[in-house]
Design goal:
alpha/beta; Rossmann fold; 2 domains; 11 helices; binds phosphoric acid mono(formamide)ester
C-alpha cells in the first residue's frame, strides 16, 4: 500500500478534496477491493483504532457499508442511532459527541440532517471526522463510490458525459457528484422538473435540461436520484404518477438509443417512480456494483485518514 496521504485529516465534502486525493482514494480502494473478494476478507490495518458511527438520520447502505469497512480493517466499532438515545431528552450534538469521545474514540463517521454538521464537529473535537451525509449538503463517500464505479466500467472519466436525473434541489448526492465528476474531468448535465433544479446550479458549471429523452441521448452514464419527499415542506410536483410519466427512466427510453448507456442509482430506489423495475434490473444498471464498491471506497478513506493520524 502507498505511503502517500490525503490533503486533509477529515473527509467533510468533495469540494475540499484535490484530484490527487481522489486518485489516491481510488488506487487504495483497488487494493481493498481485492481484499474483500478474498476468502479471508480482513486485514489488520486499523487494529487498536476505535470508530464511532453516529447516525442521526436513517440509513441502510451507508451505515452497513461503513461498519463492514471498519470491521474488514479490524477496527473496534461502536454504533449510535439518534432514535432511542438521549438526543430525544434535549442533549446537544456537541455534548453527545464529547461524551462518546470521552470513551477514547479515534474516528467519527456521522450522518446528520443539518447541512454543515460535520464541519461544525471538526472545529470542536480532535477525532478524524467522515461526513456520511449532512442534510442537503454533501455525501462524499457516495460520490467517490459512484465515480469509482464509472471508472471501473469506462476507464478514465475525462470527457465522459454524466447526467444526474431527478430531485437535484434536495440531493446531497447530486452536489457531491457534481464536484467529484468535474474534478475528474467529466461533463455534467442535470435533468428534472424546473421546481427541483436549484436556480443558480449553472454557476457550478453544469448544463441543465428539462427533457429526459434528450438527456439520455446525450449521456454515457445516467445517475438517477429519488424524489426526497421527507425534505419537502411544499409540493414541488403535482403527483408521483405525473413525475414518473415525465421523468421516470423507462425501458422505451433505452430502446430508442443508438448506444449503450450505464444506469446508476445511489439508493434507496422508488421503483416505478424515478426508475422502472425493468431498467433497475436490466444489464444497463450497475446499482449493486456501486454498493459493493462502497465498502472498498470506505475502507480506503478510513485507512488513509487513520494513517495520517498515525504520522
Ligand atoms: N445511498 C445512501 O446514502 O443510502 P442510505 O440512505 O441507505 O445510506
Amino acid at each position: 500500500m502507498s505511503s502517500a496521504s490525503l490533503s486533509s485529516r477529515h473527509l467533510l465534502g468533495i469540494k475540499s478534496l484535490t484530484e490527487e486525493d481522489i486518485t489516491l482514494i481510488f488506487e487504495t480502494a483497488d487494493n481493498f477491493k481485492q481484499v474483500i473478494n478474498r476468502p479471508i476478507k480482513k486485514v489488520p490495518s486499523l487494529r487498536d483504532v476505535t470508530v464511532a458511527n453516529l447516525f442521526f438520520e436513517n440509513s441502510t447502505r451507508t451505515k452497513i457499508s461503513f461498519e463492514l469497512a471498519e470491521k474488514r480493517l479490524s477496527a473496534d466499532v461502536v454504533n449510535f442511532s439518534a432514535s432511542g438515545s438521549s438526543v430525544g431528552k434535549g442533549e446537544t450534538l456537541l455534548d453527545t459527541v464529547n461524551n462518546i469521545l470521552s470513551m477514547k474514540v479515534d474516528m467519527v463517521v456521522m450522518r446528520h440532517p443539518a447541512p454543515g454538521a460535520s464541519v461544525f464537529l471538526s472545529k470542536h473535537i480532535n477525532a478524524n471526522i467522515i461526513n456520511a451525509g449532512d442534510g442537503t449538503h454533501e455525501h462524499p463517500t457516495q460520490a467517490l463510490l459512484d465515480a469509482y464505479s464509472i471508472r471501473e466500467r469506462l476507464g478514465s472519466l475525462k470527457g465522459k458525459k454524466i447526467a444526474i436525473i431527478g430531485d437535484i434541489l434536495h440531493s446531497r448526492v447530486a452536489l457531491s457528484n457534481i464536484f467529484c465528476l468535474q474534478k475528474l474531468g467529466a461533463k455534467v448535465k442535470v435533468c428534472g422538473p424546473p421546481t427541483l433544479i436549484p436556480k443558480y446550479i449553472t454557476q457550478l458549471g453544469v448544463e441543465v435540461s428539462y427533457d429526459i429523452g434528450n438527456t439520455l441521448k446525450w449521456c454515457d452514464v445516467a445517475n438517477v436520484l429519488r424524489i426526497q419527499l421527507e425534505r419537502q415542506d411544499i409540493k414541488y410536483i403535482p403527483s408521483l404518477r405525473e413525475y414518473a410519466l415525465h421523468f421516470g427512466v423507462q425501458p422505451e427510453h433505452l430502446n430508442q438509443l443508438d448506444k449503450e448507456i450505464i444506469i446508476m442509482h445511489p439508493g434507496p430506489m422508488n421503483r416505478g417512480v424515478e426508475i422502472s423495475s425493468e431498467v433497475a434490473d436490466s444489464e444497463h444498471a450497475i446499482i449493486l456494483d456501486q454498493v459493493e464498491n462502497g465498502v472498498a471506497i470506505r475502507m480506503a478513506v478510513l485507512y488513509l485518514l487513520a494513517s495520517e493520524k498515525a504520522k
